[in-house]
Batch of 4 targets.
Target 1
Amino acid sequence: MSVACEIMIFNTDRINLLLASSDLYVSLALKVPPKRMLSIKSTSDLLILRSDIFEASCSGLILSPRRKSLDLPTIKLGSRLKSIEDLQRRIPSTPSMVNLSHLTLSGDIYFERNVILKGSVKILAKNNETIVIPEGTVLENQVVIGNFQNHRRSVFV
């Protein structure tokens, strides 16, 4: 994400600290509509933010003009992707999700580079199985259960 201007990021948790300070003579609060705020409370939220769904501009992050829907995708991550460390280890290069509507990942799953996810995608690794999504894979409206080797490289359903 390279932008020729500085993007200001403000952590709203610091508001409580600032309001508690006795050095403040005047306090001010802003009401931000939900559509203008993107909270990051889980790794699924972080995955959306890291993806190509958003682009950086001088005014902050904006929804990519390439995205067909104004709604953000629904992302459900299994227990193996709940920590930031797990997310970075299993998905070191965030797949393209600009045209993704739903994503479900469950089990022992790893992504290689340049993966594209479109529509509704579910990847479910069975117990004691690992699924590695190979580099350059395109999954569109696809359910992957078990070993990925049984699936074609690019799948459009």
Target 2
Amino acid sequence: MSILIGDKVTDKISGLTGTTTARVEYITKCVQYLVTPKWKQGETFSEGHWIDEIRLKTVPKKKIAVKRKRLRHAPGHRGAGPHAPKRAGGRVGTSE
């Protein structure tokens, strides 16, 4: 499986949903993740639970729509790319 630390997961058996905060692999090749449920204000702190990797299902990430705005250069702006206008004079610090 491709579970990463910080992924939101759900236990297929118990239904526990939380964030993976640690991973351990035993000598027997058993892989477990520490799943820590989200803490809600006003509730007592709930500890994480070690759950076998095979029992976990990754919760799909929500897509976020981002509006992109095309920026225009200010009047008189001279870019720095290969097609930028050349500056008058020589190199800085030389007497060309």
Target 3
Amino acid sequence: MLSVIVLVVVLAITQAYDNIALNKSTYQQSPYKPGDDTYDAKRTTKVSEVYGCHKTGYYTSNCSIPCPDVNCQLCHIETGACQVCKPGQQCELECDRGFFGIGCNEKCGHCRDEYQCSNETGVCLTGCGAGYKGDLCKTRCDKGSYGVGCNETCGHCRDLNQCSNVNGTCLTGCGTGYQGDLCKPPKTTKVDLHIQFMENPESQFFNEPFKNPSSREILPAIFLSTSLISGH
């Protein structure tokens, strides 16, 4: 008799059912007692509140709009993000250009190529556009730098905080002694002139003897070199 009682108690304690919201089995500690009144079900959860509409393949409050992904069986009732795919299918509908993440609710940063923003992580696969840095390209260049890769240095702006992180323009003008959009000195070209006197230059450079061997004419050789000097 005692073993029968223990068996009944074990069955009562270990009775299980599927918890749809948590997607795992749940165990109840006391036997289920069926009720006759409707208020006994006031704590239940509708499947539509967990996954979506009762009508598969649709979403919104009145379940009137098809899920964005044709391979989706149950999608989020508000966003339309696919939560359960049709049997044998894969949900492969990508986010619209410029968006990424769950439900495609995240906006891509300032990618150099907007087509190269990962629809899963938002990482800019080919780097950032001018004025931004980081994997997501949402961080502005540090103060005093600008351009692609933040590799350019701002000029003599009146307020360095007002140097455009994109093109380096001094938005509130230049400091004393400077002018122009970038407030930088103009670039100058340095020219060096070298004159060297050589005997028989044709014989030295072209390995050809003079037609008149007795000629001992000494001719100057002129060399020019140029270099670009940036303003500071």
Target 4
Amino acid sequence: MTVNVSVPDSMALVKGTITSVDKVEKPIDGAICFRANISIPNPGTLAEGQLASGYISSSSGDIMPADTGKLEYNDRAELVMQVAGKLTVADVMEYKYYKKGAVICSVDNSSLLPTLNDAVKARDEAQKKVTEIQNSLSSTEIRSEIDGMVSAMILNVGDKLTASGTSVITISNTDSLRVDIQVDEMDVSKVQLGMPVQITYNDGADMAEGTLTYLSFEAKSEQGGGWNSGAVAYFPAQISVANSGKLLPGMGVNYTITSTVKEDCLMVPSPAVVFTESGTVVYVSKNHESEYTAATLPEGTVIPDGYFPVAVEVGLSDDSNTEIVSGLNEGAEIYVTTYTNDPNMGW
């Protein structure tokens, strides 16, 4: 609510605002009055302690005060120097205006600066020591960094560690195991990442499935065995194996990488396939002479007794099996060639 405030000493009439009303009854000349607190702007001529009175203009007439009041500053601060010392800076002038935060006066602090620097240094050293002790406390126990089982325990309860950094327990995640292998340089072009791998262990009694997950781009070499043997190049590779719980770290396994999968095909043992100048043949038992036409082989070719040559077309093959694309039917009795190495040849 707006109030007209008159200050006789300054011959000023300013408009103010009622900021609060004290709900305390005060009898004046037989009337019950309440004190109203009014905030007015200072045009520059008003000072604390001057008498002032105000009235409120309304539609029913002016509301006059029952008593006069005194001007007081809305905001006042008593500045107190917190330390003793020699005054070095004093920018104090009565009635001069200062902004909040302005330096008005100061005392000599030259004796405090070295003390402060020493205290800061001591604090930093103490904090460093606290950090070291906290690290030591947190290092008094080790926590498993992975999900897994204890695969090795070097120490037992009660043993004393003579030095920090001692390995005491090995945790291994046996859900998935890795097999490090070496791929011969003759076979590396046939394999690629993601190929399925068959794992056998326990002398072939158990099997597991794996995947080729790593194949080095750089070959390594080692001296081959036997007489007159040169360096053998190989490519390091890794197989990831899903473990059903039977495999354990360190177990010996055998593996077979499946480079190509073809279903519903006719397979024969690879030693049964004979490559001649006239073409590829398989020796079939003479019990099937009515089913096949004998192939013509170069003169002097030795044919096993009881068999005759049949021309075939081969497909995929490895060291063990060869695919027969055409020329042979399932159920045919065939001859499998066997080889015997002569130890005197140095093979």
